[in-house]
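User: Hi! I'm working on a homework problem where we have to compare a predicted structure to a textbook description. Could you give me the structure for the chain below?
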Amino acid sequence: MKSRLFIIIALSIISVYSLNALSDRDSQLIRGNGGTLINAEDFGVFYEPWAMTFLPDGELLITEKPGNLYKYNIETRNRIKVSGVPAVAYGGQGGLGDIILHPDYRNNHIVYLSYAEAGSAGRRGAAVAMAELGINDMGAELKNLKVIWRQDPKATGSGHYSHRLAFDSSGYLYITSGERQQQTPAQDWTVNLGKIIRLHDDGTVPADNPFQDRGELAKTFWTLGHRNMLGIALDRRGRLWVHEMGPRHGDELNLIVKGENYGWPLVSWGNQYSGADIPDHDTRPEFQQPEAYWVPSIAPSGLVIYSGDLFNSWQDNAIMGGLVSQSLIRVETAGPETSEIERFPMGSRIREVEQGPEGALWVLEDGKNARLRKLTPLSAD
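Assistant: Happy to help. Predicted structure tokens:
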């Protein structure tokens, strides 16, 4: 009898332990280095996810680097693979990239996606396409896909595509175009690498872009002198923010000003990976300096400027994911100085950050077994 009672108690303890372990896997409290507690709740696992965006009905579109696009119901965890995605050049940092909605998506159902595209002789480059997202009882598909922009020229290697996308309130499309680890193209007027691009929603070039006398390609440039930009967002004042990875340290958060040169590879707060020195930003005042920078590197990826009510005291803060730093980073942008406020250790590389329709923050981890996580304050903020 005692033996049977022991077994029952032991099984009960194991069951409670298993439930707690499951709970620990599904939900976690995370304390920032400023003492703030947030709750992280898991909502599924993806294979090398890269970007996400919310549809008007609250479902998500999520990209995976190998070339998969899913429509994902966060309540039921049901995912539908979207057909019609263009072929991607998968490998290294390349593959399917960003996904955003047209500002008038409710009426036209147009989405924009970026991806690495193969060229000749092993060369690759980023491309941006627009398409109509068709959803019915049978599934989901991209229809009438049209490429509206390409990196020119394509380059060898598989790094620094950047290809993050954002629309401003006037309907202009911004594209971050990385320098493809080539460095010098960032200052070259004859190539669109290392630039921020500004286009109309159909891919045509606005007549008020700043560089009208530097050649046809330069007419698409909004700014130049950039390295690898994996986060782009607009704040409530309409200001455009972009972060970019430095070389060996010196990651930057930049306030983007029309027609400015941000200095790469001539200046940086970091050094070359070889250890070779790069002149600091303050040695060349003709270049636009970052609003904030990080030494050592955080490897930023994903960016939102928070505008919700759930994290009320976080309004107008930049929320950035960190790859190397495996963190979520909160930065003040509305005050006289832009500076890091708090850092949350996430325990994994963070690839993407989005604000949900009810003000929660959503993050995608990086890698082959990456979680989608919903972040909420522990109590009313």
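For your comparison, note the following. The CA atoms of residues 127 and 150 lie 4 Å apart. The radius of gyration is 22 Å. Good luck with the assignment!
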